[in-house]
Amino acid sequence: MREAWYVPYSTTAFEHTRVVVLAPHPDDEVFGCGGTLAQLASGGASIEVILVSQGPQAQTRYAESAAAANLLGYPAPLQWLFEDRGLEASQAALIEQLTEHLLSSQPTLLFAPSLWEMHPDHRAVCDAAIQAVRAYHRATQAPLTLALYEIGVPLSVTDLVDISSVERLKREAMHCFTSQLAEQSYAEQIAGLNTYRSYTLGLGVSAAEAFHVLEAHEPFSEQRLPSQQDLALLRCENAYHAERAAHQADAATSDELRQRLAERDAQYTELRAYLDAILASRGWRWLTRLKRLLGR
Fold first, then answer.
1. For the residues 161-170, what does the mean pLDDT come to?
2. Which of 219, 263, 221 is nearest to 240 (CA)?
């Protein structure tokens, strides 16, 4: 079926015994892949969740994450001390620390948020995960599956996991995050996303979690993962809009600045067409083409 090229019409069951989960903030691990983690835990997998950043209400939010972990069946998360909304600035240190952790723990499955996420910390963690996996493979030649999960923005899905059997448990775990639910109805929204992801799976599936899996079940190679330059292209759009917003409010914009913005407009229009193609694809082959077309 042509449709199956875009969205799977069958489910995937991750069968791994050593799992590491990267959560930019407490709650991301549950919202993004809590159902899958519950299934892995019930199957005897060793699961290690890492809360990458700390921000306001750090102790409260850690306690909420630990309570959710207890419900889903895995140990309380580890806490790293990177700054909330500061992960892009700490990218090199994050990649180094994550690479060392992967070399020490030697997981077979790594979960991270996807590049399609809107939150800069989510994208920074994904970027770090890709670079750390590349470094890990160079050092060990060991296979490591990287599964990107979705929270704020639906991703280009390669694998769907049926979480119908633990759907109620995941809802209960999401309700542990009372500090966040006081600000937004995240639990209801994520539950709606999980229901929507069952769209192609038939009446027997009531909820699913979606993932974009990079080179599952086989070793990574340098050619199969996007480079740091490729990843920077996916962040270009946000930087473009931020610059325009900052200067459009200034009525006394100089001729030089107007010229610079006009050049950025032209670059953005061209880049946007290629990014749309990337986001519609199931693989990273468009990134290689885009890199060649831009002369990188």
1. 98
2. 263
